[in-house]
Design brief:
mainly alpha, Glutaredoxin, Glutathione S-transferase Yfyf (Class Pi), Chain A, domain 2, 9 helices, 4 strands, globular, binds glutathione
């Protein structure tokens, strides 16, 4: 299978981390967003990375569909539990992380527009989503070792990609001062090979 993505996308990093944790082999195509008619558009009509192209030609997107598919592929390191409530809690957490990322990516893109076209009001609205999402994650994590349930799951891997992406793109966001429990989680995740091998570069 082939993964189309970039080194800086947090959604792509989440999928790469899952691929490494699940020990699934893949070919990595990093220039999928380059050029006037980027390769990704041939695979995902929405033109968004990541996309996972299976060996039979079927292309999977978005990242939540891909992570769920990968978890069913291999029994190594189960990431989404089977019981309905536990499963929903993990999927809900992943949605919360991705929502914060959507807001963050929207701000990054807005800041790339000419200054006179940028909307402060709109960026403030996106920033509110990020701040409320992080606060909720920290509240729900509390003193637990992992975000949902007793074991490491997709919730934790997704949260790790978010937190490290904030360091990368939102270094002014004081999450490390505000949420010591998220820092502890990030410190533990950062020791995993899956995170060490997927560090974004500018
Ligand atoms: N919900 C999507 C979000 C993916 C996404 O927003 N990817 C960004 C890069 S971080 C992208 O490809 N943006 C290009 C665009 O929106 O045209 C997912 O989870 O895969």
């Amino acid at each position: 299978m082939k993964l189309l993505g970039s080194v800086t996308s947090p959604f792509v990093r989440k999928v790469r981390v899952v691929l490494l944790e699940k020990q699934v082999d893949f070919e990595w195509i990093t220039d999928a967003m380059v050029g006037a008619a980027p390769l990704i558009e041939q695979y995902n009509p929405l033109g968004k990375i990541p996309a996972l192209v299976l060996d039979d030609g079927l292309t999977l997107f978005d990242s939540q569909v891909i992570t769920e598919y990968l978890d069913t592929l291999s029994p190594v390191m189960p990431l989404i539990p089977a019981p309905p409530r536990e499963r929903a809690l993990v999927k809900r957490w992943e949605a919360m992380v991705d929502g914060v990322l959507d807001a963050g990516v929207a701000i990054v893109l807005e800041k790339r527009r000419p200054a006179h076209e940028q909307s402060e009001t709109w960026m403030t609205r996106q920033r509110g989503k990020m701040e409320r999402g992080l606060a909720q994650m920290s509240r729900e994590l509390g003193d637990h070792a992992w975000c949902t349930g007793e074991d490491l799951s997709l919730s934790d891997l997704a949260t790790g990609t978010l937190l490290f992406w904030l360091d990368f793109r939102f270094s002014d966001m004081p999450w490390r001062l505000q949420y010591p429990n998220l820092v502890r989680l990030a410190d533990r995740l950062g020791q995993r090979r899956s995170f060490q091998e997927t560090v974004p570069t500018a």
